[in-house]
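FORM 7B: Structural annotation worksheet

SECTION A. Query
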Amino acid sequence: MEVHCEGCAGCCMDWRPLLDDADDEETARGRRRTPFDEGDGRPPLDDDANFVALTRDEVRGFLEAGMAPALTPRFWRARDEGEGVEIDGHSVAAVAGRPVFFVGLRKPPKPVAPFDREEPAWLPTCVFLDPTTLQCRIHDSERFPDECGAYPAHNLALEQETECERVEAAFGGERLLEAAVDEDLDGLLLGSQALGTKLFAHPRPEALEGIVERTAAGTLTVTDRAECLAVAAASSPGTLATSDYHYEWGRERALEAAADARRDSSDGRDASDGRIDGTRDSDRERGESWVGPAIREWHRRRTAANGAVPAPDVAIDVEDDRGALETPGWDALE
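SECTION B. Predicted structure
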C-alpha cells in the first residue's frame, strides 16, 4: 500500500461541507467501515463521517496522559428490534441487552485548506491534526492510534472504497498510489474479536439515559463522555465483564482532565486577542494537557468568527503555545 498524503488529510476531517451538490455528497458517504456502521445496517447516532475506533488500551493511555477531552463515544441505531435497547426514544444497538459503543477522537472546528484549496474553511477536524501542515501531531508518539496507522489498509482488506479514492473522485489528483495489502493484516477486529477490545458494552443501560439523546444532538457533556470512557477503560477483551477499579479510575481521570481544561479557559487569558499568557509552563508542570483547552478555544473562535475564517497558522496560538507537539512539515519527509 502506498498513499500520497501531502495537502490532503481527508481521513482526518469531515470535508463534506466543501462539496457543491448532492451528487458530490454521495461520493463522500460511506467512509470507514466498522462492525456496526451503515454497511451492516446500523447507522451511527452521530454524524462523524470517518470515526476512528480506539482500543481499550489506547483509551487508557489517553486517560493517563490527561487527554480525555480528545475522546468521544459512538453509538448506533439497532438493525432490528431483536438487538436493540430502547433509550431516549432510540433503539440502540446492543449485545446481550447491553448498549455497545466505540470510543474515538473528537473533531473540533478548525480553519483548514485541504486539497490544494487557496482559501481555508472551518471544518470538523481531528483534534490532533495541525491545520498549518495538515500533519498529525502524535504520528510518531505512543499515543498514535493503531487504526490511524492501518488506514486505508483496513478498508482495502474489506474491499471498501478508501478515503483516498473519495478525495480523488471529488477533487481530482492521485492519493491511493498502490492498493496491495497483506492478507494477514493485523488489528482488523471484527465481530466477537472486537468485544471488550474496541467494541464496548455498557453494563447499565439506564445510566445512558440522556447521553444517547445528547449523542444524537451533538451536545455531549463532560460527564457524558466520562461515563463512556470509564466503561471502555474498565472493559475486558473478549467478554462483557468490567472492572470496578478501572471504571472508577477512568471516570476520575476524565473528570480531572475536563476540570483542567475549564481552568485553562477561565484563567490567564488576555481577552483582547484570545492568547494565553505565561501560565502555559506551570500548567504543563502540573501534567495538564493542551488538548481540552485547545478544543474549547477552537469552538470559541468559530462562534466569535461570525463567518470569517482565519489563516490556518492561528493554530500556533491555539495549540502550539499550549504545548502541542510540532509537526515536521513535508520537506522533512522527502
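SECTION C. Observations
The two ends are 18 Å apart (CA to CA). Residues 2-326 form one domain.

SECTION D. Sign-off
Analyst initials: ____
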